[in-house]
Write a structure and sequence with these properties.
The complex is a heterodimer of chains A (123) and B (546).
Chain A lengths: L8 E7 L5 E4 L5 E2 L11 H16 L3 E12 L2 E4 L2 H8 L20 H4 L5 H4 L1
Antiparallel strand pairs in A: 1-2, 1-4, 2-3, 4-5
Chain B lengths: L5 H22 L5 H9 L3 E3 L4 E5 L5 E3 H13 L4 E4 L5 E3 L7 H10 L16 E2 L14 H11 L14 E4 L13 E7 L5 E7 L11 E8 L3 H15 L10 H8 L1 H15 L8 H9 L20 H10 E3 L5 E6 L10 E3 H14 L3 E4 L5 E7 L3 H10 L14 E2 L14 H11 L3 H4 L4 E4 L13 E8 L2 E8 L11 E2 L6 H18 L7 H8 L2 H9 L2
Classes of the chains: A alpha+beta (123), B alpha+beta (546).
Chain lengths: 123, 546
């Protein structure tokens, strides 16, 4: 995990099976929505997120986990870097891509997304 | 077109089976990501910003209708209904699932396609003039030589782990439509002084972080010596290219640091050692490969008397999007993938199917992909142009802008690419919308946009180039002027301080306005005017004028 954040941070990665950008949510699952990402504010919490990312990568759930620095604005999470904002929001041009077909729901049911592991276990 | 023989077919099938096993071992945890990454990259699978991306090789940009239909099928079945044609004459799918990629590769193998060597530090997909075999200004079709190079370089045991990736382009015309001089090796097929076919060989071109126009390393190379000479160049590079610094590992850096004379001497020495050996190309083998590319059965067909019905849009399309064919009565048609305000290079599955149908009916079953992210129907009878135009229009593919200011190259940029620093596509869309009303007045103009210094959008060689960078976490854009990827290849110059996402569109318009103001007349293209005037009046327009 080479990209270390210093402020409020969330943990992101790509899901191994389909490569989709995912965020560790407050229930301990990897979720495609940044809105439910677990925010670490203290250094110990950030270290725990990092450890969780390394653990889940070793478990082959996700690939290349790293921390993303975010601002918390009006109850929403906004990455500081534009790169991460695009990554969280998806391509900004999809409305103009000819023939683009959004995946149906594409969301795996919450029960299947959740893992039984918790932060303490990873740490 | 080239057809796989039994060896080719078995080789590709075997490779798919190997990759299927590798994916299974990765998902089961038997392989770590560090172990798997080089394996997936060698099969064209990248992990991008939002998902995996699969890059499919289209050798020398030539496709049959059957192959195009297969790409449409894959887009519809495994992706999200769309595909992206690239500046390497390849196709990229942006949303494949890793677990389904072996199935995609199996489907591709059915139509003699694959994704081998579309990534990694190896010899990549060989590109060629997209008008090859159709244009009258070539000495011969360059694609047989590109195919010979493809066969020689596929899984070449000595060159599978080069210091860095290696790109080869082949042209056979004085008009360079393949950015040949911006490749690691550029080959210009020509008549030698003794009248035989042979090559001028260029080496060390490239864009990226350190752009260089290639230098000519040999003016006359007999065609029989093509592979031995390429092997000699690759050997010198493989031994001497830097492996300690990825940013200095391309052959262009070796040429720059050692000097072309020194490298030429070493290449010649190695070449003389291996010249008469196993790599000498027998005339029969060249003829055997060339037979796959023999011209289709052209008919002597007079153009219809009413070639251009009273339809101004059709007339404009014929003017902009057709090119003179070597066969009287035929034309080369450029199918623009640059709708005004659209995404450069993207095509829907339905559009791919439409092009396949049109090519099958009107272009001897053949389609080309251009490095400018358009498609080409290489052999269309003049008498069929109206029908072709109407069919393309039905598929929203009849934009009449080939070579104009809205025919913009743009890499995927930050919308998709994990390496990008800034978005390219939205900038291209807004420039396209801004300049569209005046594009005929502006005339030929090549605008090229990259979202990072790797220069997939060829910004260095745009008449107007745009480079996206990251500045304090936000998108920022540098402007370059005066580049060219054609026979007058040149690297553009940065104008000065960059611009924000809004300012860059205004900046391009200011440059265009100043060009229109100062050109000697409509016949003086942008690049000529820039060469005559220099950068000063354009910088004044950008940074001084109110």
């Amino acid at each position: 995990m080479s990209k270390r954040a210093t402020g409020s941070s969330i943990l992101t990665a790509n899901r191994l099976s389909d490569g989709r950008a995912v965020f560790l949510d407050f229930e301990g699952a990897w979720n495609e929505s940044i809105d439910v990402a677990l925010v670490a504010r203290a250094s110990q919490e950030i270290a725990e997120l990092e450890a969780r990312g390394a653990f889940d990568a070793a478990q082959n759930l996700v690939v290349e986990p790293y921390l993303v620095e975010v601002r918390e604005t009006e109850g929403r999470l906004m990455p500081v870097r534009q790169r991460e904002r695009v990554r969280a929001g998806g391509p900004s041009v999809l409305d103009d891509v000819p023939g683009y077909a959004a995946p149906e729901t594409a969301r795996v049911p919450l029960a299947e997304r959740r893992t039984d592991r918790v932060l303490e276990e990873a740490a | 077109m080239y057809r796989y023989d039994e060896f080719d077919a078995a080789f590709v099938r075997q490779r798919v089976a190997q990759f299927r096993d590798q994916v299974e071992r990765r998902t089961s945890g038997e392989l770590t990501e560090d172990e798997f990454r080089p394996l997936r990259l060698m099969n064209g699978v990248y992990l991008q910003l939002h998902a995996y991306m699969l890059r499919i090789a289209i050798p020398y940009g030539t496709l049959s209708s059957r192959q195009m239909r297969k790409l449409a099928h894959i887009a519809r079945t495994y992706d999200r209904g769309t595909g992206h044609f690239t500046t390497r004459q390849n196709l990229q799918f942006n949303w494949p699932k890793l677990t389904e990629i072996p199935d995609i590769l199996d489907e591709l193998a059915e139509v003699e396609m694959h994704a081998i060597q579309t990534s990694g530090n190896c010899i990549r997909n060989v590109t060629a003039d997209h008008f090859a075999g159709a244009t009258g200004d070539e000495v011969a079709d360059p694609r047989p030589y590109a195919e010979i190079i493809r066969q020689w370089s596929s899984l070449h045991p000595e060159f599978s782990f080069l210091p860095r990736k290696f790109k080869v382009a082949v042209i056979a015309s004085e008009h360079d439509r393949a950015a040949m001089q911006l490749h690691d090796i550029g080959l210009h097929l020509k008549r030698l002084q003794d009248g035989r076919l042979g090559f001028a060989v260029y080496v060390g071109g490239g864009m990226g972080r350190t752009p260089f126009v290639a230098k000519k390393i040999r003016d006359e190379l007999p065609e029989e010596d093509l592979l031995s000479y390429l092997e000699a160049i690759l050997r010198v590079y493989n031994l001497q290219g830097r492996r300690d610094n990825k940013f200095k590992a391309r052959i262009k850096i070796l040429i720059h640091e050692a000097g072309i004379e020194a490298i030429r001497a070493e290449v010649e020495e190695e070449w003389q050692r291996i010249r008469g050996g196993a790599l000498k190309l027998p005339a029969e083998e060249i003829a055997r490969i060339a037979a796959y590319f023999k011209p289709p059965g052209f008919e002597t067909r007079p153009a219809k008397a009413a070639l251009r019905p009273a339809d101004r849009a059709f007339d404009r399309w014929v003017t902009r999007n057709t090119h003179v064919h070597k066969q009287p009565g035929y034309a080369i048609v450029t199918v623009s993938l640059k709708p005004i305000g659209g995404v450069p290079g993207d095509a829907s599955a339905a559009q791919m199917d439409a092009v396949a149908d049109i090519a099958e009916r009107y272009s001897f079953d053949e389609v080309r992909v251009t490095h400018e992210q358009n498609l080409v129907l290489p052999h269309v009878s003049l008498g069929d142009l109206w029908e072709v135009y109407r069919a393309l229009k039905e598929a929203d593919l009849a934009e009449s802008n080939a070579g104009l200011a809205t025919d913009i190259i743009a890499c995927p940029g930050l919308d998709y690419c994990a390496l990008a620093n800034a978005r390219s596509i939205p900038i291209a869309q807004r420039i396209s919308e801004r300049l569209a009303p005046r594009q005929d007045e502006i005339g030929d103009l090549k605008i090229k946009i990259s979202g990072c210094i790797n220069a997939c959008g060829h910004h260095h060689v745009g008449h107007i180039g745009i480079l996206g960078v990251e500045k304090r976490g936000e998108e920022h854009y540098q402007l370059l002027l005066g580049g060219s990827g054609a026979e007058d290849a040149a690297i553009g110059n940065i104008t000065g301080p960059g611009f924000g996402p809004d300012g860059i569109v205004d900046a391009v318009e200011k440059v265009v306005d100043r060009y229109l103001e100062l050109r000697s007349g409509p016949d003086e293209p942008f690049l000529a005017a820039y060469g005559r005037l220099g950068a000063a009046p354009f910088k004044e327009a950008l940074y001084v004028a109110a």
